[in-house]
Amino acid sequence: MAKLSQADLLAQFEEMTLIELSEFVSAFEEKFDVTAAAAVAVAAPGAPGAGAAAEVEEKDEFDVILTGAGDKKIQVIKVVRELTSLGLKEAKDLVDGAPKPVLEKVAKEAAEKAAESLKAAGAAVEVK
Known about the structure:
By secondary structure, this protein is an alpha+beta fold. It has helices at 6-15, 18-32, 50-57, 73-83, 88-96, 108-120, and strands at 62-68, 100-106, 124-127. The N and C termini lie far apart (47 Å).
């Protein structure tokens, strides 16, 4: 089997529709047990001495958990799609299967903003 170069792969992806590309990403994630979601970088300045011990105890990663969709399920699905890289079916499955995490191990500000957006759409949300 001939190995494809990055340029060849990109050329193939350019020809795909968004639906085909979404299905490919889902199949890739399943095959290799990975997630194609964008990583969120969290940079916290380190404090020397006693301040470092206090930082270790302070939680800097939070999970946003959808506990219920509420009455406006379609709006909640739209917000879930905005917050994640999930397709329509995956977002609908996540909302239908609540309680489920929407975002995991994100910064406090990102978690609060996501929770606000979901609550505004009518969802019940918990930040852990």
